Amino acid sequence: MAHLEHVVALAGGVGGAKMAHGLAQCLPPAVLTVIVNVGDDFEHWGLKICPDLDTVCYTLAGLANPATGWGRAEESWRVFEQVRALGGADWFRMGDLDLATHLERSRRLRAGETLSQITADFCRRWGIELTVLPITDDNVPTWVYTDIGELPFQEYFVKQQCQPRVLGFRFDGADRATPAPSVIERLRAADLVVVCPSNPWVSIDPILAIGGVREALQGRPAVAVSPIIGGKTVKGPAAKMYAELGIQPSALAVAQHYSAWLRGFVLDHADAAQTEAVESLGLVTLTTDTLMPDGAARRRLASETLAFAARL
Ligand code: FO1
Q: What pLDDT, on a 0 to 100 scale, did the predictor assign at position 2?
């Protein structure tokens, strides 16, 4: 893989967006495709909200709120405050700039455009040259089985702040959904698939659940970056989910999650003691600093991951 012509990144959430941003700084836009989870998408305020697509696109365009990773930088909350004053739901914060995305996306969906068509046009307008694709144009909402009942994803993640104990997940409609146009072709043509440090359960698994995706991944060189460092996540509930599902949260657990179709695994120095166990799964490992506090770190991790993949 000295010369990479087609790299496909699988991403969801803030960690995925950061890795995608790092890869975008290392690869020509025509080489990189980012395939994004849509399981977190939901209807709110009568609008279609696509948090993972927006987090990836805002990050790639340099528009993301650096403090939270999601939503827009330089945000204002005038509409949110008035909606709250009128009795509207205020558990999911949408700022004025972010609201423009939801309003225009919802209008276009109602007019019959597909999510991938809308995403392509928004990327063009945001100055993003690489290809960002939702894994599917169909609705495949993630439901989380918890000890307080089955919750739509954002009610678990935001309204309940990931507190309920997780028992399992359901990707509603995954068996009927079809991959978005060009997704399968791009996976099949990939010289390299990079699984970003996203939540395996609710960012990556919903991508893999769409018909034809696992088959298209067969035989493709794939590397994953662990989202768990020292038994914890930088952000989000992945480690808590592993523990509640009876699995010791660790980089090794993530490697096992993907090992059936993975060739390389990138883990943090903090987890160097696990490299042997990961290699016993048949994987090649790279141990490095996997934290991405800033743009330079994102670029460095992406560059190291690509160089590592070239040695597979
Ligand atoms: N996460 C929160 O914890 N609280 C919020 O109020 C919130 C609002 C929000 C608005 C737009 C958006 O794109 C993302 C938002 N997120 C919020 C994050 C979102 O729930 C997660 O980023 C993804 O669904 C999973 O990573």
A: 57
Query: What is the token pair recorded at 166?
Result: 């997780």
Read off the pTM. Answer: 0.98
E strands present in the chain: 7-11, 32-36, 42-44, 47-49, 131-134, 142-146, 149-152, 166-171, 192-195, 222-225, 228-229, 232-233, 264-268, 284-288
Give the count of beta carbons closer than 10 Å to the beta carbon of residue 76: 11
User: Which of 79, 91, 92, 143 is the best mutation target for the ligand 1 pocket, counting ligand atoms within 8 Å of the beta carbon and taking the most?
Assistant: 92
For residue 94, the ligand 1 atom closest to its alpha carbon is 10
Exposed/middle/buried for residue 248 (C-beta within 10 Å: 0-12, 13-18, 19+): exposed
Give pLDDT < 70 ranges for the chain.
Answer: 1-2
Q: Where are the domains of the chain?
A: 7-142+173-311
Please give the CATH superfamily to which domain 7-142+173-311 belongs: CofD-like domains (3.40.50.10680)
| Span from the CA of 12 to the centroid of ligand 1 (angstroms) | 12
Ligand 1: atom nearest CA of 50 is: 13
CA of 157 to the centre of ligand 1 (A): 8
Q: Pocket around ligand 1: residues whose beta carbon is below 6 Å from it?
A: 13-14, 40, 51-52, 54-55, 70-71, 92-94, 98, 154, 157-158
| Angle at the Cα of 28 from the Cα atoms of 67 and 289, rounded to 5 degrees | 45
Residue for token digits 């909402």? 141
- Residue 3 confidence (pLDDT): 84
